[in-house]
Design brief:
- With 395 residues, the protein is of the alpha+beta class.
- 32% of the residues lie in helices and 27% in strands.
- The radius of gyration is 24 Å and the shape is elongated.
């Protein structure tokens, strides 16, 4: 059932109030066979020392697990590298390991971190954890076949403790049961893993009243099938290649986005359909150009200005993802492209024309051919960092 499953992954951290760095760390390794290893480590305490400890833990374990070494060997190595704190008698770092094969088989290993949550069909699905003792440490392990639509969430204890502290409204913290209830209805919406993760951390931040009492990290995996999106911007450098470029573009499965005025006209001529300008989206954002419509094309927008805004959203998405509250609902071209590329697509094909637009040669316009090429390169790189499969073809 699962050779076509795609693990959409999102993670983010918030530092304890007053600390420069977060004491939690997430490590991700993608193996050549398509499997992925994820480790969320929580260093003892907070600040720089905790960050170093969690980084060491996640780095060591992720690389060992990626080499298919037994978990007992990995835990022994960590026990040797990170001994027990002589004062608190606690491990210097706790961790959760999630290893997902190309077929969606997941192995989850936990040591003193809050229990991972699997949501299936909108409800929590109990994970079959088995506890073993390794190096005097209690290790929980579960193996489960993930399915399309499954959402797997793990986090550091700062999430469950959110709201605890002087002057806070939640004397006992948010707690696991309430986190499950919060996550369950969100899994039906179709948000990407990154956005689901951001919504969860935003709620933790709100419960801490903007001042986190502990380092807080969340890691979300959303299992989905591959979805292809094709984006074309700019006409080919040789007009004789117009039909070739259009034929290859429209032969691809999935959704189709056409960016740029001249490119849209070529696409309309190729499809023998009218190009209709749509002015009803202008009220969303006065800075964004109007869009258009061509029968047979999912989205038709302006070119460089629109893609530049998408790139701004992509950069933010890879950081704090603050701008998702804008592009997740707005109707302008950049917002719709962002939703299609960030939320829907797993595989993205760029068709980039190398023709120089005469309109861009106006010295009063800060747009050049090199800028367009740079935008595409940077956007492609951002999408790769999101875990998308990217292919760029030039004409």
């Amino acid at each position: 059932m699962s050779e076509y499953l795609y693990a959409d992954i999102g993670y983010q951290s918030m530092s304890k109030h007053g600390e420069i760095v977060c004491g939690d760390h997430v490590e991700k390794i993608e193996k050549p066979d398509g499997s992925v290893v994820l480790v969320l480590a929580d260093g003892l305490g907070s600040g720089v020392k905790a960050n170093i400890l969690s980084t060491l833990t996640s780095t060591i374990i992720s690389r060992m697990i990626a080499e298919d070494l037994p978990i007992s060997y990995c835990v022994h190595a960590i026990a040797e590298a990170l001994p027990i704190c002589s004062v608190r008698k606690l491990a210097y770092s706790t961790f959760t390991v999630i290893s997902i094969s190309p077929t969606g088989m997941a192995n989850i290993i936990q040591y003193d971190n809050p229990g991972a949550i699997l949501v299936r069909d909108g409800k929590e699905f109990p994970l079959p954890f088995v506890t073993t003792i390794i190096e005097e440490k209690s290790i929980d392990a579960a193996r489960v076949q993930l399915q399309k639509g499954d959402v797997l969430v793990t986090y550091s204890d700062g999430a469950e403790h959110s709201g605890v502290g002087p002057g806070m409204s939640y004397a006992y913290g948010w707690g696991r049961d309430n986190i499950v209830k919060f996550i369950e209805p969100l899994c039906h919406v179709g948000f990407s893993a990154k956005t689901l993760n951001t919504i969860l951390l935003d709620e933790c931040y709100r419960r801490y009243s903007g001042e986190c009492g502990d380092d807080t990290t969340a890691l979300t995996v959303y299992m989905r099938t591959h979805e292809q999106v094709n984006l074309m911007i700019g006409p080919p450098s040789n007009r004789e290649d117009n039909d070739k470029m259009m034929s290859l573009f429209f032969s691809k499965g999935g959704k189709h986005i056409v960016c740029g005025g001249t490119t849209s006209k070529i696409a309309a001529n190729y499809l023998k359909k009218p190009l209709e300008v749509k002015m009803d989206f202008m009220d969303d954002d006065d800075d964004m150009p109007a869009m258009a419509h061509i029968e047979g094309v999912d989205l038709v927008t302006e070119g460089v200005i629109t893609i530049n805004r998408v790139l701004e959203y992509a950069r933010d998405y890879l950081k704090d993802n603050d701008s998702y509250t804008q592009w997740c609902y707005k109707r302008d071209g950049a917002s719709q492209i962002a939703r299609m590329l960030f939320e829907e697509a797993t595989d993205i094909n760029f068709f980039v024309g190398r023709a120089v637009n005469p309109a861009h040669q106006n010295p009063n316009l800060p747009i050049t051919f090199s800028i367009k090429m740079q935008l595409v390169r940077e956007l492609s790189e951002c999408l790769k960092q999101m875990g998308k499969n990217i292919r760029v073809s030039y004409f």
